[in-house]
Write a structure and sequence with these properties.
Length: 64
């Protein structure tokens, strides 16, 4: 293991522990692709946002 990899892995493990609540075993069980997907900013939702009328209709329908 190179020194650069070790220091990078330690930083990512700390980030996963603090930000995601992962224990070391959970970090080491994740693939790099899984970690990148979890840490990536969320993709914007497709379509236009709800109008005020649509939001009010949903609120009436889902009123609990």
């Amino acid at each position: 293991m190179t020194r650069a990899f070790a220091s990078g892995a330690a930083r990512l493990a700390a980030l996963a522990g603090q930000g995601l609540g992962w224990r070391p075993a959970e970090f080491w069980a994740a693939t790099p692709a899984e970690l990148a997907l979890i840490l990536a900013p969320p993709a914007p939702l497709p379509g236009a946002p709800l109008t005020r009328a649509e939001c009010a209709a949903l609120m009436e329908t889902l009123d609990d």
